Amino acid sequence: MSDRPRSALLYFACVTLVTAAGIATAMTFRPAFRHQVLDVLGLADVPQAAPGSFYTARVAPLFETRCNGCHGDKMDRGQLRLDSFALLMRGGKHGAVIAPGRVDGSELFRRITLPESDEQAMPPSGKPPLTKDDIIVIRLWIAAGASGALPVHAIKNAPKPVVEIEIPQSDPVQVHRQRAPLADVVRQLQVRFPGMLEYVSRDSADLEMNASLSGGTFGHAQLREFLPLQDRILRADLSGTAITDGAAPVLAAMTRLEVLRLANTKVAAATMQALAPLKSLRSVTVTGSAVPPAAVVALRQRGIVVYGSDDVR
Amino acid sequence: MSETIKTPTQFAQLQAQTRRQFLGWGMGGLGALYMNDAMAAPGHTLDLARNPSTPLSVLPPQIKSKVKRVIYLHMGGAPSQLELFDHKPMLARFHGKPAPEAFLKGKRFAFISGIPKLLGPMFPFHQAGQSGAWITDRLPHLEKSIDDLCFIKSMKTDQFNHAPAQLLVHTGDPRTGHASLGSWVTYGLGSENQNLPGFIVLISSGGITANAGKPLWGSGFLPSVYQGVQCRSAGEPVLYLDNPKGVSRAERRQVLDAVEQINRQTHREYGNPETVARIAQYEMAFRMQLEASEAMDIRREPQKVLERYGAQPGKTSYANNCLVARRLAERGVRFIQLYHWGWDSHGTPTDEGLNVGLVGRARETDQPTQALLADLKQRGLLEDTLVVWGGEFGRTPMWENRGGQEMAFIGRDHHPSCFTIWMAGGGVKAGLTHGETDEMGYEIVRNPVEVRDLHATMLYLLGFDHKKLNYPYQGLDQKLTGVKPARIVSEVLA
Fold first, then answer.
1. So what's the ipTM on this one?
2. Which residues of A touch B490 (CB under 8 A)?
3. Shortest CA gap A119–chain B (Å)
4. Closest Cα of chain A to B402: distance in Å?
5. What string of DSSP letters covers A10-32?
6. What is the pLDDT of residues A140-175, one digit of tens each?
7. Nearest CA to B490 among A67, A121, A160, A228?
8. What is the distance between the terminal CA atoms of chain A, rounded to a whole angstrom?
9. How far apart, in whole angstroms, are the C-alpha atoms of residue A266 and residue A264?
10. Going by DSSP bridges, is the β-strand pair B394-399/B125-128 parallel, antiparallel, or unpaired?
11. Does the global pTM surpass 0.90?
12. By C-alpha distance, which of B127, B208, B133, B214 is closest to B177?
């Protein structure tokens, strides 16, 4: 009966021994694994990159998009991982890939600058390559000491970062809520003036109006009907309508107007004066109207672009 | 139609529903039950459902747009970037020397064979404007507006013959059957003027269209109402639009009313939404009879304006078309496409010489193009219009030697690896030059821009995520930008 615990003990001892031997072998031949084990045991010195550092802002994103598919958490070709500063600095199967301050001595830099046809070139042929600017960023960073702490603005001559435009996902519930208070007014005006009023975009409650195709049938009385929307209209095209300076108070009430088109109307100096308090106004068009050049000086001084008050070539 | 349908939107949606779509959605529903929810991610496609009787009604863009309309100046035949904008002094130094092996090894050309010679730029270049952009001395007018332009000198394509390359530029695909840029834009946004087509095509150069012909403004798999309508700046603006001789407008109206009654009856019997669309198109043509003639009639412009463009009423010319383009922009037309063929400078016949044909094309287009830019600017329209100028590919730094022979005139072969375009208008960084080619103008060395990147950027300026402006066809959500990843060229945005 006493044999059984002893053989069990022997079994576990063997398993433990084999496991330990396996781990030791792996640690000897796979530096990345050795580092992981040391990390787990809390024995490794783990360098960290600081947020806002040149590395975090400029270098890491390049590895993320161009390298980490093969050198990351899913795959570690050549036992090299680039998905953290610590792992990058540890290097791969053949040791360190970055020699701080020495661009020529950095294996990583040698590999990324080989001609595409070279077997050792990285990223390998057929994968999206690093751009000229990407390579300059990496070179400057290594030359400056390959630090994880150096602030992003410390390297002055770095090429400008590439901006990728992300189009925000709109939230229909939120948009609906923003539109709700005036939704009925908008709908009624859309029925009454077909094609003249529309939201500026699907993700907004702001509006733009265009009466320029209705010609002379659109005047003050019609414009006044849009007054309930005075805080929502960002763009108004009243070109060719029958409005005159009499419409100035209504326009001045549209406090968020950015673009106002009054081409081929009878508006004159008084309207220009009335527009002066509009904070968001960016451009006004008065081509073919009675606005004298002197009346737009004040607007232009505020940086508002005024088109057509004098004959531009 | 059932009386329980309440809102116009519901009505429109049900009207637009065909049996095929219904079955499609049914299958999709089953599929969705089976598949992970993530597959049916919300917001994957924009809802562009419209009442079929108003197919061109305005829909708001997805996000706030920078521009409301596009004027696309297509220079068919591929103008030589090396003669116009891409300044290469090094190429001049090597003029007449044999092309290096690296230029030829593993490459295919349309006509070059053997070892061609290098061909230096034909005309002097200089820097102009505040921006200091390089320009040839063949475009003295355009130079006045150079600070309004944003050059992309690193455009590339994968097509080296005219028709497929033009199709790629206009429809995002080198084969026929895809929807053109103008169709996508009018499908996505509608058009402000319901009395004019939303997508108008104007052709100069003796009426020669580009090689790929009408598919360049076709609607492909999109409903046919979104295809471009070819208009003419001389004679009847739209062919077959006017009433036949002896038919008055009132009589025309009576005919249309009778046709409508029959169509309505057909629709009641078969419920095909295309019938409603047909009624709408008859009505639009009737309204267009008045408005199109007025919009296309440049005789209504003051002499001063005609002179600025170099326009001559009654003729077919690029100058007239530029002036018409401005008139259409003012009238709320969404997409205005101009074609000016004749830039295919191989050096074979006289008109295809860089020293003859290209000079002529430059002269024909220089003044009108600049007049259009200046006119749009003065009228406050440039800030919400996107103007694009460009061909379908570039031309080689090598002197064309068709069949190993020296040519009668000087020319360059087709070159898909790099070409230059420019944009101007709202949301674009004026005065910028983006991208760079090597010292010989052979390959791009900085910031390559694919045709699909240009399309994604244009759609972004119009307020769209190119991935969401799509249309189901043959089992794929078809997009202008295709299936390869496209990038919005943020560097050129203001």
1. 0.86
2. 162-165
3. 19
4. 31
5. HHHHHHHHHHHHHHHHHHHH-HH
6. 999 999 999 999 989 988 888 888 898 988 889 999
7. A160
8. 109
9. 7
10. unpaired
11. no
12. B214
